[in-house]
Write a structure and sequence with these properties.
- Strands 3-2-1-4-5 form a five-stranded mixed beta sheet, sandwiched between helices.
- Helices cover 41% and strands 18% of the residues.
- Helix 6 (180-188) crosses helix 8 (237-265).
- The protein is α/β, with parallel strands linked by helices and 341 residues long.
- It folds into two domains: 2-117 and 303-320, Nucleotidyltransferase, domain 5; 127-298, 2-Layer Sandwich (Nucleotidyltransferase, domain 5), CATH 3.30.420.
Length: 341
């Protein structure tokens, strides 16, 4: 079965062709980083227009690189949420249109579940459960008990900022370009991680959840004082490096400790990672150093970003396991629950 995967949840347009559930024939991604960089974050209206403009050229490229024609596609899978409503509308509308034109089924999938599926592509899937799912991206920071490939129980979430979002905001305070995570990781390599203490809180009622807003505020006050009035001032290079190293240490250590605690509490021997923040080599190295007997499954770098291949793979898996196709009444939703059984 050949599946066309469509991803337009935020600021990357992803279109991919996957044979079966794992064989990636093409995986084309059009990034909008340069478009949004002047604003320090994603503007939904601009993102929507860019998705619409690039969609057909990217579809042609995906088909060309897969060496197939459009009429060979058997199934269309599209990310129907969570994400930004405008960008989601572009992808879902395209999927419906192609489904009607080609007279083939389409299926809406959960973008976050697809992030976890990305780490499993090419691997045996049913022998690892219960497993712990860890999603860290620009919009999400979550821990999930995975009872199968496509069933999940949320056990931890962010109460305010997602991790990638917090990195972007701290980078902006430091005068660094968007996206902030790679820039902070780069500066942290030559910084002193112990100069400042930026440690997220532990919440007694929510032992596996996260709160990064307070840490972000502490960085702001450290840089500009508590009487900050909105004017960013020049910061010397060493302070930038030390802030970067200290902030990265604080939030990554918090994530690692809560993840390991949850894996032990729920008797998970495997941890499955997904989301753009998992592309951080620092995070991977620190997790590897503390994993013990746990098996860590990381997505390939290209699959850690938003992409169509993970959407196609999960869609094909669901369809081949009896999940019904979506109807033309499917509506994209910025927030959707995980599949819980």
């Amino acid at each position: 079965m050949l599946t066309l995967g469509i991803e337009t949840t935020c600021d990357e347009t992803g279109i991919a062709i996957v044979r079966g559930t794992d064989e990636i024939l093409s995986n084309e991604i059009a990034s909008q980083i340069e478009l949004h960089r002047p604003y320090g974050g994603v503007l939904p209206e601009l993102a929507s227009r860019e998705h619409a403009e690039i969609f057909l050229p990217l579809l042609d490229l995906a088909l060309k690189n897969a060496k197939i024609s459009l009429d060979q596609i058997d199934l269309i899978a599209v990310a129907s949420g969570p994400g930004l409503l405008g960008p989601l509308l572009v992808g879902v509308t395209a999927a419906k249109s192609l489904s009607l034109a080609l007279n083939i089924p389409f299926i809406g999938v959960n973008h976050l579940e697809a992030h976890l599926f990305a780490a499993l592509m090419g691997l045996p899937k049913e022998e690892r459960y219960p497993a712990l799912g860890v999603i860290v991206s620009g919009g999400h920071t979550q821990l999930l008990l995975c009872t199968s490939v496509d069933t999940f129980i949320p056990i931890g979430d962010t109460h305010d900022d997602a991790m990638g979002e917090a990195f972007d905001k701290v980078a902006k305070m430091l005068g660094l370009p968007y996206p902030g995570g790679p820039e902070i990781e780069r500066l942290a390599k030559t910084g002193n991680p112990d100069r400042y203490t930026f440690r997220p809180p532990n919440m007694k009622e929510y032992p596996y959840s996260f709160s990064l807003s307070g840490v972000k505020t502490k960085v702001l006050y450290t840089l500009y004082g508590q009487d900050f009035r909105g004017e960013l001032k020049p910061i010397d290079d060493q302070t930038k490096r030390d802030i970067s190293a200290s902030f990265q240490k604080g939030v990554f250590t918090d994530l690692i400790e809560k993840t390991l605690k949850a894996a032990n509490a729920f008797n998970c021997k495997t941890i499955i990672f997904g989301g753009g923040v998992t592309s951080s080599q620092t995070l991977r190295t620190w997790f590897d150093a503390r994993k013990g007997d746990l098996t860590l499954l990381w997505p390939d770098r290209i699959l850690s970003l938003d992409n169509g291949a993970m959407i196609a793979g999960l869609g094909a898996h669901l369809f081949s396991h009896g999940h019904p196709p979506s109807s033309l009444t499917l509506r994209p939703t910025p927030r959707i629950p995980f599949n819980i059984k």
